[in-house]
Amino acid sequence: MSAIGAKVSGRFPRERLGRLGLVNGVLAVLLVAAGVGAYLVVSSTQQTATGTVRTAAVARGVVLSTVSATGALQSASQLAVGFESAGTLAAVNVKAGQNVKKGQVLGRIDPTSARQAVSQAEASLASTQASYQDTLTGETAVQRRQDALSIAQARQSLANANASLAATKRSIALDKQTSAASIAQAKKSLAVDRGQLQVDLAQRTKDRTPYATVAAAQATVDAAQATLTAAQATQRADQLTHLDAQTQQQNDQAAYNAAKAAGSTSEQAKFTAALAEDTKTLNANQTTLTKDGYAVSDAQSALSTAQGYLTALENDAKAIQADEQKIASDNDAIASAERSAQSTRQKDAQSLVSAHQQIASSKLSLQTTLASVAAKQAPPTPAALAQAKASLLQATFSLANARKALAQTTLRAPIAGVVAAVSGTVGAQVSGGGTSVIASSSTSSSGGGGGGNSSSGFVTLTKLTGMEILASFSETDAAKLRVGQPATVTVDALPNEQLAAHVIAVASTATTSSNVVTYDVTFALDRTNAQLKPGMTANVDVVTAEQDNVLHVPTAAVNGNGRNATVNVMRNGTEQRVPVTTGLQGDSATAILSGLKAGDAVVLPSVAISSSSGGTPGNLGGGGGGGRGRLLRGLGG
Length: 637
Description:
The structure is a single chain. The protein is an alpha+beta fold. It folds into three domains: 3-110 and 414-606 and 620-636, no CATH class; 112-138 and 383-407, Helix Hairpins (Orthogonal Bundle), CATH 1.10.287; 165-374, Orthogonal Bundle (Helix Hairpins), CATH 1.10.287.2610. Helices cover 53% and strands 25% of the residues. It is built from nine helices and 21 strands. α4 packs antiparallel against α6 (265-377). The longest helix is centred in the middle third of the chain and has 113 residues, at 265-377. The protein starts with a helix and ends with a helix.
């Protein structure tokens, strides 16, 4: 129900709805006048450079979408005749519009399951009768042998349970030994690794005699390496100096030989002195090179010694780290072994409990079997006889009920009447629920086959004691209708009456005439009127959608829809295109969800204005009148 319809029906009880016709008539006149006046106020013309522009102000209010149709009043009292239980429809023996007599077959559902139920009930009765006979006569020799076998099996189960308990105890003892061995082995490994750690710590203490730390040893190695590098550099420099001196000696010797060959005494004396000086220099250089060799050798020896100490300390650190890792692993192994032992103890405890429970269960089963055999072999007691008789009686009742259910797979008319609708075709599933009286018709037409049946009956029988309206709607309008929607009905014979109604059925099959597709929709009047007669013409209005307290503009002003819509707005005398988001498109107005505010002037499409129409207001008023008229009829409902 719409917000307006809900307020009206909630405020006025059904006994006062008879007075709503006059009230609604007055409200109709007032609201139409107010609506036209408001429209004339918000509508205006503006002179622009391009001519006259029609505008309308954005307003806040209710946007309604309605559909209308014309139909006829008809009878409404019906009897929904249905099967007692659900099933697959096997036969339909009547059709809509057919007169039926009381007791006439209307249809049948598949009796297969009902027949199976009868067969099962008959078998159950036979079994119960045999059991009753056994109660009277006692056990046979075969049954006594079966009793003996049951006792033997129960005793064997007890023996097996005892053997299982013994095996469980042996397994628990073995688990204890295994867990203890695992823990002991892990602890032994821990002790060995701790001893190795002490050995490696002692070795590190011994190796720390020259240098306390690896860093100190590394510093010594670095210093020795630097000394060696310097000594080698000095040696290479002195070797180059010696080579230069040798080259100078060779040059002076060559010069002397040339002077001698030339017979120059002075030159010979000069280069003889030079050669002597060269020899002196070479001898000095050779002494220096010898010292350089000693220095390099000493540096290499110091570096080798320092590197030995460093390597020993590094190896000690690695060994100690490995020992600590082994000890941590040993501790983890001990913890894991202890957890495993705890888990094993819990599992073994559960197994032991289970074994004891199995023994207790086997003992109880043996006692139960012995008691059961004793009870069965004892003479029948009065209680047993009474129970057997009760079971026999129950089986008899079950068979009677099954046969009754089988008979109910055939549906017969409980009274004489006219078939208004038949719901279902052969092979379709029908629901149960039996026969019930319904207050209004749910069929679309006497020959329509019940396209919109709202009752649970398979066949609807009708007689003349009530009124409903059957109207045909276009396929577009019919898609907007649903059962329960409120409607307003006016009858041509009672022009001052507005009647409340609601949708009770929408036909699922269409009617096509002259290529026009329509769907029959059935409405039930919410109250009766003695002046109403079958066949009277009725006009029906239904509010199919409503948005309350929203901004809205005339639909003609909107281009597009949803988030892709736009409107033209007059701002400071200039027409501007503004994007908007639209909501419900009603009969004459469209809801605006965003993009505009109340009071904005939207531009309307230009129209031709007749000189006799009185100007723009006359043309504007015609567009919204239909929507308001339908709104007022909705209020009357």
